[in-house]
Amino acid sequence: MEVRHCHQHGEEEDVHLNSDDVHPSIGQTHDRSSEDIVRSNWQSNELNAYGNDSETTLSESSVKKDTNKKSFSFEDFQAALDSYKAVIDISNVAFILEPFRCTLCQQPTSLPLTTKFSQRMCDSCRITLDADTPLRYLHDIVGEIYVFWLRLRREELCDRIEQVDLPGLPTHLGFIEGSPGNKTTLPTIADVRIHDEAGSALVSHALSAEQRGLLEEVLLTVNQCHISLLVLVQLLKKLVRADADSPILQVREYCYQPKHELCYSHCVHTFTLKDGRHFAISFTDRQLGWYPLVVPWAEYLDRCVKTESVPNMYDLGHVHMETASELSDPDSIPEDERGANGVLQRERALRVADEVVGRWKEWAKKER
Ligand SMILES: [Zn+2]
């Protein structure tokens, strides 16, 4: 499916959310013309290029603006990116340049992964976490599912991704829609161009293996929030149910309007522990430049969810059920998604959902 959630769209004045709009049906996404997307990216670049420094005077910023526009017009920008179904501006995921950070406190740490599948943690967070058995369990299982999910994404990748370095602009990555089942691989990205800290000059960064790894996580999670809900259902049911001693009580699906300049609809899992604690778990937040995988619910609401949006919480399996019902009644698929790929993508995602426990077992045999 053309999952338009999490597209790197710009904030649109004409987006009016109501409960239907944020319903996580694949058919009820906010579509926008590719011109809108491209214009938003361009505007976002202008913002990045000129900075948001309130001390910058108007005359200064217009001088910079004129210089920039002489080198590359919006029309050129539009023409260069128009053919892509999704475009990521590296400026929006600049966190990839600092891969050695604790996933909990986000402070720099040079420590290696604390367990095979845990995310990187600083000493102080690790000690706190080790004293909290339910939370330690949650982090470990989420870390493991995340690594498996990325593997699944690599195996299912069918889009072609191109690095686009346009004059005077930071690196963009454009997604060319592929056919489900026709496997592609990620491009090897050796360096990226990004604005310096002052936002005034473009500098080129050669990417380390760690930085490239984090960039690949971003690329593998673009437009995948719905798919992650759809394909992981049986695995999450199995893992939560498998162990009576598991501290996890419930997993649900949550769809919302994010506090994000370029994304207006997003979804995540929520995990509730038997001790009552509640967390947002997002296997696809890194596409938005958001680094943590496990965030206490109140903190996630505060940091990521627009207060004016109408949130929707669903039982695990909701997106899967809706997608299956769309396929049994193709008229319910939005008109612009009824082409061969709209149906193929849904069929493929449901097949992966059916296979997910088997694929997990295969993966776990080798990796666990
Ligand atoms: Zn920490």
Please explain how this structure is put together.
The protein is of the alpha+beta class. It folds into two domains: 30-94 and 157-221, no CATH class; 140-156 and 225-367, no CATH class. Helices cover 40% and strands 14% of the residues. The protein contains eleven helices and ten strands. It has helices spanning 34-50, 58-71, 74-81, 123-130, 133-156, 209-221, 225-231, 233-242, 297-304, 318-328, 340-367; strands at 86-89, 160-164, 172-176, 191-195, 202-206, 248-256, 266-273, 278-281, 294-296, 312-315. The strands form three sheets. A five-stranded antiparallel sheet has the order 9-8-7-6-10. It has a three-stranded antiparallel sheet with strand order 1-3-2, with helices on one face. The chain has a two-stranded antiparallel ribbon with strand order 4-5. A hairpin with a 6-residue loop joins strand 4 (191-195) and strand 5 (202-206). It is globular and about 60 Å long. It starts with 33 loop residues before the first helix and ends with a helix. Residues 1-5, 7-34 and 46-70 have low confidence and may be disordered. The structure holds zinc ion. Zinc ion is lined by residues 102, 104-105, 107, 121-122, 124-125. Residues 1-36 are annotated as: Disordered.
